[in-house]
Amino acid sequence: MRLKSCLLIALITALLTGCQTVPVETGNTPESEALIGLPGEGQLYHGVYPGGITGEEDDLTLQDLRSYEEAVGKPAVWVFFSHNWYHGREFPTATAEWIRTAGSIPYVRLMMRSDASLDHGEPVFTLERIINGDFDADLRNWADAARDFGTPIIAEFGTEMNGEWFSWNGVWNGGGDLTGYGDPNEPDGPERFRDAYRHIIDISREQGAINILWVFHVNGSDWPEDDWNRLENYYPGDAWVDWIGVSVYGAQTPLDEEWPDLRSQMDAVYPRLTALAPDKPIILIEFGVTAYNSLGDQAEWAEDALSDLTEQRWPRVISFSWWNETWQNDDNPAHDTNMRVQDNPQLTSVFQQLVAENTAVLGEAILPVENGE
């Protein structure tokens, strides 16, 4: 493994010998914050979602990862994937194990949903039922398996919660109503999300899964663009969050009629994130743009984006993860989305120059050093 072996062994030993139930008091600094050291000044971690076949983000393979890494010319510190509960509620140990064996940290999207379709309410794994404890046994088993995995895991619940395409968005959970749940001064949809998020993290910590670093992952823009749906309203609080993540994309299909760049979108959301959680690192956990859109060039988009990132335009950002996927949009192959670096020689060249040859972009995690060693 590329993780520094002596520190990794020490971390595993500490985690396994302390894996009994460990209650965490509300308001304390999360123990998981110390799992992965932060990059030094001017440095960035390099992560990836390396793509799969079905578009459900849970069928990625070692071949997918190696194909991306070979094209880019640098290893991925972590590998991003989904754990869809419609395929099973048990912790995805097999996927996490091959990612660890490959030398990367597993980054798990905890997707408590009944199907892969978007833009509808959740019939089973509702925020209300999560809050009420209906899935506590499943969540405790999930946390136990994550704890017993032993080495660092990055995880998130409620991906892009300020976007209405996912069922945990407020649109499907009370929206801006003030009278259906909790505090009459708070919009019900975001308030339910906050309580569900806190509940999941509390259970994880009660089970001693202190090897999980939890991310609060927002979309770069609020949709719908209503005041009650602002990303800030969903934030569960510093005590439940380790890092802040954000998704920012360019055109996602060849048919998109706009060509948004990374800079303008990040310039808009970055001040909000830094104000929301002044002490939390920020990760650009999803970014990418498709090829074949007539409005712009994929390689030029990526060059501008990576230049801004590596030149520290947003100094609190400590990592980036390219969304390296291709998918079908309709029956015309010319309309397929393709963000895969390895499929565009010009895009490959950009990554080789700004990622592979850039010593400030790290392909190996920094583990914390204890006892002054």
Walk me through the structure:
- The chain is of the alpha/beta class.
- The protein has one domain (5-362): Glycosidases (TIM Barrel, Alpha-Beta Barrel), CATH 3.20.20.80.
- Helix content is 30%, strand content 16%.
- The strands form two sheets. It has an eight-stranded parallel β-barrel, surrounded by four helices.
- Helix 2 links the parallel strand 1 (44-49) and strand 2 (78-84).
- Helix 5 (136-149) crosses helix 6 and helix 8 runs parallel beside helix 9 (345-356).
- It is globular.
- Residues 1-29 have low confidence and may be disordered.
Observed structural traits:
373 residues, alpha/beta, TIM Barrel, eight-stranded parallel barrel, two-stranded antiparallel ribbon, 11 strands, globular, disordered N terminus
